[in-house]
Amino acid sequence: MFRFIYFSTSLFFLLTQVSFAEPYLAARTGHQCMACHVSPTGGGMRTEFGQIYGRSLAASGSKTSVFSASLSNSIRMGGDFRGGLQSSKTPDEENQNSFETKRANIYVQAKLLENLSFYVDQQLAPANENRTAWVKYQTSDYYLRAGQFFIPYGIRLEDDTAFIRQITGINFATADNGIELGRDINNWSSQFALTNGTAGATENNQEKQLSLRLAYITSKWRLGSSVNYNKSPTVTRDMFNIFAMASIWNMEWLIELDQIEDTEVQTTKRQLLFVEANKEVIKGHNLKLTLEFYNPDIEIDEDERTRNSLVWEYFPVPQMQIRTGFRDSKGIPQKPEDNLNEIFMNLHAWF
Length: 351
What we know:
By secondary structure, this protein is mainly β. It has one domain: Porin (Beta Barrel), CATH 2.40.160. The chain is built from 5 helices and 16 strands. Strands 1-2-3-4-5-6-7-8-9-10-11-12-13-14-15-16 form a 16-stranded antiparallel barrel. The N and C termini lie far apart (45 Å). Mean pLDDT is 88; it is low at 1-20.
């Protein structure tokens, strides 16, 4: 516990002293998630503003697109493709190299009434399955949506393998069925969700998952917190986090600290830390550094894991991104799978 507090505090003071959706872009622009995405909590289809901003990231080339997201006055569509080459090395084993299609998605939004819309996110590859499908009623301050959607919790990272997304179980692979109420007024943004707690699977118990996310947003920084309660027939999970995003010294900083308590026969407490720094070196080139820490059981010494990455992101033309980087993961020697070295190159194209 002391090591975690010391590590967390050190990184927090470092942050303040240097005073696969990309949240750092929200920190760079000062906008809320719904400014660029149809979903009020981010990810998926882009709004018209999000399309324009996405094209503006390119280092060169035309900033216009031959594709129009608007098929009619009431129907819009979009899509994402993510894939690439990954090479990984575990101790005492040979390199593993593979080409992968991470995700290919099609989005459709239909505006039924002035304040009522229908949305579908369909994944085409690597497996054909529905990710989200919901209806939303929107007023000037509030929205209410029902259906299958991504749970509001913490920073909406695109990288589902990050500890804060993988260990919490709230990521782009675990949409759930339920209802969500959100309010955005002045600098405050809040979302409350009541869902099955089965990550979209068939409902099998009488319990429900509760999620609450609250953030205070300014043009230069934002500070927030999330809580989540999920009781299944075998395990009760309580999660809490605090997160911050800031644009300081022409760099974008993200930080999230999580605590998880899983209660079965006894309670296991887990702790996670995520820190990310982004720097636009020149137009169209972003350098990203991430530091991650995971303690799977605070009662057990010397079982922590770390995961650090250095990534270069290049936007050569509008609506295309090339990412290449190196990731180093460290854990206890008895688990070779937790001691990975990875090199990767990914292509992301969207419309």
